[in-house]
């Protein structure tokens, strides 16, 4: 498994004391440039208890391996300040659960905009769990706002292995979420009732089926339903229910067939997203189609990345990003001179290095900067690398809407219109993006079209 090691270096541990929450930061990019310990915000969170519980929920997801649980490393959450809100994000250790807390009710000074990691240590977790009431909480994101200043320059350093699937998951989930529709919205009491009605077995698979203004739990797919495979993977919603104002449920557009797994996976299993509206903030979970399927292998980014112009377009579009609360594709198209379809592909390319996320509630992308080496990005999609090698070697023979791709394992027949293939990988993993043979055929077909034009 490809993986890098991320070194966190904090000026001191994050602390919560006397109504002051100081989040220590490590590295990152800001409008003012690269920073070792950036300062982004100093002010009040108007709702202390839900903010503390939401931050703890994001940290819990980073701590948890939902598929085949076992002790492991904890990855510190990422926070982005865009001047309008704070977005705290994390991924589960197994790569199948993405969590984000959008803190909207800010009252204070935005000192800079950008992205960094924040230290969430054991003592801080215990302190967050004890926060009660709805009194304001002073928050400082940056080392100068540490609640206790008698640490005599104590430095906290952590070295955490980061598998490639972690970064690939950030890229995949924003593409998958962008294709979701809102399927249901429940007000507070209904949301609490529905979530508490779910089976207690953590590995249970259910479908949330719209029923008027409510949702009912079913054990089989139905039109308009949203799949939840592994009920235990939304466990971090439960401590937040006492603050819940609404629950919104999102699923793939196009019905039950979208993103269904292949013969090995069980028909109808789909990714989904669950958004809890809290006072002054939103907590969102995105759940992969099945517990054993991390987002990193879904392949949703590959079609966009296979285009010849995606990398160059990403350089152009990337220079226009400015940590905006919402990235407007039309505005980027106007500023870059690119058509919207190429802007979307460029955003996907930027997502492979963690520079773009997607907010379902806003139906818009947002800008962030994860601390990853861009030189490693090309290694994160081996299917695409193999496809380009096949196309460059002349292994693809096009014939109308079909193609024959010659490999060491034999000749594979690709149907371009359907995006299907006769290879064993496609039979086992249909629904997890195109195989290398389909990608190779698409690359060759585009090259032929350019020559003929």
From TrEMBL:
Keyword Zinc among record annotations: yes
PROSITE patterns: ZF_SWIM
Start and end residues of each SWIM-type domain: 412-446
Top-level taxon of origin: Bacteria
InterPro entries: Znf_SWIM
Annotated keywords: Metal-binding, Zinc, Zinc-finger
Name of this protein: SWIM zinc finger family protein
Organism: Nonomuraea guangzhouensis
Lineage of origin: Bacteria, Bacillati, Actinomycetota, Actinomycetes, Streptosporangiales
